[in-house]
Each structure stands twice: as C-alpha cells, then as structure tokens.
Design a protein that fits this description.
heterodimer; A: 117 residues; mainly beta; six-stranded mixed β-sheet; B: 108 residues; seven-stranded mixed β-sheet; 0% helix
C-alpha cells in the first residue's frame, strides 16, 4: 500500500522560501496526480495546485500563481512544493494528497510551516 | 471558480442519531466529482466518499453520499463516538479544485 510521507516542520523568515517534499513510500505515484492543500491554524482546507508526476505538468490556483512551484522526481517518486516570498499568513500545515478514488487514498501526514521573524 | 457552501455550520447530535450534511455548489460539479472528508483535531483529512456516492476503502457503510449537479449530501446513518469531527466537501472536477468551509458534528 502506497503511503505519502512528508518532510518535517519548517520555521522560515518572512520573504524567504520553503520547499516541502512528499515521497510515495511502498510504491510509486503511478499515473495519478498529487495535489498540495494547506490549512491555516483553525481554518479550512485550501487547494494550491497539483502535478501529474509522469508528465511533469503542474497547474496552480490563481491565488498562488507566481509564488508556488510544484515539481516531481519520477525516479524517487517524490513530489515537491516550493512557496516563495513567505509572509505570516502562509503559516499553515501543508498536505500532499492523492486524487479522490486513487488506489492510495491517504493524505500525507502534513508539514507545519511557520513564518515568523 | 466553483464555490462550495456547507450547511449547517455546526450539527449537535447524540450518538446513535442520524446526521445529514449538505454541500451546495455555485455551479454544476463536473461528472459528480464531489468528495467528502472527515478531519479530527491534529490529523490529516480522511477520504470518506468520492464520485459523490462511492465509499473509500475501509469506510463503514453507515457513511453514504448522494446528489448530483449542484446539491450533494453526506449521511451518517447512526453516529458512533468516533464520528464526531469536521466534515469537508471538495469538488475536483474543475480547476481550481475547491473545498467547502466544513461542518462540525459535535456531541449534544
């Protein structure tokens, strides 16, 4: 059973960038997309974008266009989400997620990114 | 962008009762690409329903989804103690994918 395992918590300064990884443990992403979703403290879920790892094609929510880059390394079955020009409002838990209905349907465990001076 | 509205915001019920959660979309959801998730404090969301009515792997049959177009419903037939949580709907048929604001089901 494929599980999505994310990198650990990060503390960043305003204006800097963060890169979070999501590795498919026990298998590969196969042909499925991987989305990135964030959740600010006490708030709801916000979709940031997704990638088709075997094609390397990503699309993004307009809100994050120009600030987020989602990539994937097929050889290691790892997806990455890089967010730049960080501000305090970017403090959140960031999740990688498979598409609903995929054979592996558990999200990554989440990565807390704290933006603070 | 498709905006999802969930109602009620909070549902206060007792174990054993039936829960009915609503998710309404601002425009038709393509091919019923509507999912429901359960989230408990400190945990990642867990997929319950996809394709509006298909249960995800390992999800008990007390959870059921229905609806099409712009109106969708998640029903929990008999609430178990572990079902008290926040529930989100998500449309994944058009980009950007969007989530509803959530419905909290708490113990009455």
């Amino acid at each position: 059973q494929v599980q999505l395992v994310q990198s650990g918590a990060e503390v960043k300064k305003p204006g800097s960038s963060v890169k979070v990884s999501c590795k498919a443990s026990g298998g590969t992403f196969s042909s499925y997309t991987i989305s990135w979703v964030r959740q600010a403290p006490g708030q709801g879920l916000e979709w940031m974008g997704r990638i088709i790892p075997i094609l390397g094609i990503a699309n993004y929510a307009q809100k994050f266009q120009g600030r987020v880059t989602i990539t994937a390394d097929k050889s290691t079955s790892t997806a990455y989400m890089e967010l730049s020009s960080l501000r305090s409002e970017d403090t959140a838990v960031y999740y990688c997620a498979p598409p609903p209905g995929a054979p592996f349907d558990y999200w990554g465990q989440g990565t807390l990114v704290t933006v603070s001076s | 962008e498709i905006v999802l509205t969930q109602s009620p915001g909070t549902l206060s019920l007792s174990p054993g009762e039936r829960a009915t959660l609503s998710c309404r979309a601002s425009q038709s959801v393509s091919s019923s690409y509507l999912a429901w998730y359960q989230q408990k404090p400190g945990q990642a969301p867990r997929l319950l329903i996809y394709g509006a009515s298909s249960r995800a792997t390992g999800i008990p049959d007390r959870f059921s989804g229905s609806g099409s177009g712009t109106d969708f419903t998640l029903t929990i037939s008999r609430l178990e103690p572990e079902d008290f949580a926040v529930y989100y709907c998500q449309q994944y048929g058009s980009s950007p994918q969007t989530f509803g604001p959530g419905t909290k089901v708490d113990i009455k």
